[in-house]
Write a structure and sequence with these properties.
The chain has 24 helices and 16 strands. A hairpin with a 4-residue loop joins strand 3 and strand 4. The chain is α/β, with parallel strands linked by helices. The strands form 4 sheets. It has a 6-stranded mixed sheet, with helices on both faces. Strands 1-4-3-2-5 form a 5-stranded mixed sheet, covered by helices on one side. A 3-stranded antiparallel sheet has the order 13-12-15. Helices cover 47% and strands 11% of the residues.
């Protein structure tokens, strides 16, 4: 409607300002010319009539005897001229200026348009729920009653479910806990790697608890406008308190990815004002403001707990920190059962065996495996999803899709075959590492080939011998290329990167260097962000740094020499496996053992190594 009115006004304006071509414009006379005609008009009668329009400058209109119109401006105080006009022109009159309402209307039209535009914005804002004027309002989504996700849909995180189940039971029956003087935690922080089910747990809480549930992301607080984040925090908790009072049973606030707003506050570098810091301060104040009697409980999730401000983690704000880690074999089997409910499975399916092949997979990875297996079976027009599709899905999730159409030269194919054969053969020869299950020279993802070596069990610790064995296997591709061609390719870059990381962690983090002793020379797994690692100094001298580099180089060289010795001794097996890979492109463990004539057990005894202690395993950092 607004645009219709605006178009109508525009058309009127154009019609009023359109030039009139059918009427002839009056002739403009000069003052002297008019005065000369006026003096002789009594005899000649050339001027038929005159009309004076009073305005800021008097306008004189007239008509000659032949009907021609003329006009001129005259001074207001020229009394002599008026005297001459009255003497020589019989038809003379003075009129007041006419008021043209259309001109007045269009003179006020800009103001009218501004008023109409403001009215349009206000009316549109009311229709959109006042979003235009509600920058400082919380964007939390509220759900009431039981949801679609419950704890039956969550598997592999039994301890976290137990902690959150206690929160739900408190909301349902608070007197059960209060009769002995217990107090429910104000906040629960879910910590864990990506994909482990932190958000799913929060949704399950919403599904189990028959209370209002407000959820939003940490990034929803901060906008380009100053003060919006703090205003949204206050509005969020105000909504939570109102929802708790209206339900009479409490309410839950869930903030996903809280590290977006809860990072460590400004450390004094630079200057200026930080909007995120104001938002965090408002969050800290609000979490102190609500009491247990309000029935308001806050749940947050993050995969970067080391970046959070210590004031946010203290008791009284987040009283409990629940670690949601990667599932073990039982947890993986349970997760596979949950995600395979809607999939038609073949009778041969053994979820336990699939769980054994997916060590260190998160819940999201396992859900992706189930989906990929179903898609692969559908492509093959199968009636049900079998073990073949599940194992192919595991490889697809781990390494990426196959690229069978990529054109590869004979030379590159041969180099890849020897490279992967070196990895695979060393995993067979070295006792303290896991044996490969499949080796392929078909490109997958960014790799030209791959050797699949899944862990046989869940390991939480690795000793020194196992780490040295991993380094030797990683160097197997480089060593095999050296033995075959006397040269190496760029395909070893990722292997060298991993080997260097393992060796440096052995020296700097795990204390596995005899030369440097059992000391830690670096902080582990610190995320670099403003206010933490920027100002940290090295805790060791330049001489120690040189010794660290020498020890790292020694460990890598030691692993290289060991691997080269093994592959030279078993050169015939290396050649057999490489040729078979060139011929078939893919070899599994059973075919490799039959080809090489190797029993199931390792054929090389464990070499004597210095005494090793169990160490925490961190595959991601290594």
């Amino acid at each position: 409607m607004f645009w219709v009115v605006l178009l109508f006004i525009f058309l009127i304006f154009m019609s009023q300002n359109e030039p009139v071509t059918s009427l002839r414009a009056p002739r403009e006379l000069s003052y002297s010319e008019f005065y000369n005609i006026l003096l002789t008009n009594k005899e000649t009668g050339k001027i038929r009539s005159l009309e004076l329009v009073e305005s800021t400058e008097n306008k004189l209109h007239g008509t000659f005897s032949d009907g021609t119109e003329f006009a001129l401006n005259i001074p207001r105080d020229d009394t002599e001229l008026f005297k001459v006009i009255r003497e020589n022109v019989l038809n003379f009159k003075v009129v007041a200026p006419q008021i043209f309402w259309s001109q007045m209307f269009f003179s006020f039209m800009p103001i009218l348009l501004i008023i109409m535009f403001i009215w349009f914005l206000s009316h549109r804002g009311a229709q959109m729920g006042n979003k235009i004027w509600s920058f400082g309002k919380s964007r939390a989504k509220m759900s009431k009653g039981k949801g679609h996700v419950t704890f039956q849909d969550v598997a592999g995180v039994d301890e976290a479910k137990e902690e959150l189940q206690e929160v739900i039971e408190f909301l349902k029956d608070p007197k059960r806990f209060e009769r002995l003087g217990g107090k429910i935690p104000k906040g629960v922080l879910l910590i864990g790697p990506p994909g482990t089910g932190k958000t799913l747990l929060a949704k399950a809480v919403a599904g189990e608890a028959d209370v209002p549930f407000l959820s939003l992301s940490g990034s929803d607080f901060v906008e380009m406008f100053v003060g919006v984040g703090a205003s949204r925090v206050r509005d969020l908790f105000e909504q939570g308190r109102k929802a708790s009072m209206s339900s009479g049973k409490g309410a839950i606030i869930f903030i996903d990815e809280i590290d977006a707003v809860g990072r460590l506050r400004f450390a004094g570098i630079g200057g200026g004002n930080d909007e995120r810091e104001q938002t965090l301060n408002a969050l800290l104040v609000e979490m102190d403001g609500f009491t247990n009697q309000s029935g308001l409980i806050m749940i947050a999730a993050t995969n970067r707990p080391d970046t959070l401000d210590p004031a946010l983690l203290r008791p009284g704000r987040f009283d409990r920190q629940v670690v949601v880690g990667l599932p073990d074999i039982n947890g993986r089997e349970g997760i596979l059962k949950v995600h395979s409910k809607g999939i038609k499975l073949a009778l041969e399916i053994n979820l336990r065996k699939i769980a054994q092949q997916t060590v260190y997979f998160s819940g999201a990875d396992l859900a992706n495996v189930c989906n990929e297996a179903a898609l692969l079976a559908a492509r093959k027009n199968k009636e049900a999803v079998g073990m073949e599709e599940f194992f192919a899905a595991v490889e697809r999730v781990t390494m990426g899709p196959e690229k069978k159409s990529r054109a590869i030269s004979r030379r590159e194919k041969e180099t890849t075959a020897y490279h992967e054969a070196g990895h695979a053969l060393l995993s067979l020869l070295i006792d303290e590492v896991d044996t490969f299950t499949k080796v392929s020279i078909i490109p997958r993802g960014m790799a030209g080939g791959y050797t699949l070596t899944p862990p046989t069990e869940d390991k939480h610790y690795l000793n020194k011998k196992e780490l040295l064995g991993q380094m030797t296997v990683l160097l197997g591709g480089l060593i095999a290329e050296e033995i075959h061609a006397g040269d190496t390719s760029t395909g070893v870059s990722n292997d060298l990167e991993k080997v260097s990381q393992i060796a440096r962690h052995m020296v700097c983090v795990y204390g596995m260097s005899e030369a440097l002793g059992t000391l830690s020379y670096g902080q582990r797994d610190h995320m670099h962000f403003l206010g933490r690692d920027i100002l940290e100094n090295k805790e060791y001298s330049d001489l120690t740094a040189q010794k660290i580099d020498e020890e790292v180089r020694r460990l890598v060289q030691q692993s290289h020499d060991r691997g080269k010795k093994l592959l030279v001794e078993h050169r015939d097996k290396l050649e057999l496996m490489a040729r078979r890979l060139i011929e078939k492109e893919v070899i599994d463990i059973d075919e490799a053992r039959q080809l090489l004539g190797m029993p199931d057990a390792k054929i090389i005894p464990v070499t004597a190594e210095p005494a090793a202690q169990d160490i925490p395993k961190n595959l991601e950092s290594v």
